[in-house]
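Data availability (excerpt). The following record was deposited with the supplementary files.
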Amino acid sequence: MRRAAKNTVFTLLLLFLCAATALFAYLYFFQPGERDLSGEWDAELDMGSRAAVMALDWLQDIEGVSVSLEEVESYMQGLTIRVNLTFQETARSEGTFRCGILPESYEACSQAAYEAFALAFQSLLAERLRMAGYTGGTDGESIEALVNETFGMSTVAYLTTCGPALLPSLEELQAQYDGSGTYTAVEGVLTRQFDVGGPGAVRAERYIRKGSSLVLSGEAQDASGAVPLDRVQGHYPVVYTLRQAENR
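Predicted structure:
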């Protein structure tokens, strides 16, 4: 009888330990958003809205031509800048990070933005010429030749030289996104403490881990209460998706 009681207690204890182990394993490995973030991630900042707003403001100065933000945005598709973000977990839900804008991606995005801007400009210029009774060709090639003849340079070169700054400067973006330091990831909030930027410089973001993607949203904050760059500009998002980078 005593032996049977011991066996029963042992069995119950074993079942309890198995259940506790399974629960711990679930919480550690499968609980949404709380898994190890270690690895290299790639983010893409969508710059289309910012570029469209800056282009629109400049295009509206062309006399006799009306254009909407939606029309300009239709040209500014796929304008993204890559950001590299690396996490290294050193303890449960905390570790070190390194983040930086990729300059070559910035240059490629800037070039693509002005090429898209050139298409919008040529379309509006052709419309303005037709309204003025111009009898020459108004197709893309003809307008490009006219721009070259008038300004002595291509449409893209003219807009890059004389047009608005479609994107924030690389230095502005680097000031906003570049840096390294320590992080904690607790209850769906990723908090990064930067090594530089003044005492208490932190960024707190809500995050969701979805397979190979990490969805971050939030606003930079610092001890001085300075308004973050994305709120000052107001034209590019603080919500972005990072995908696990392939081995390089």
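Summary of structural features: The longest strand covers residues 80-91.
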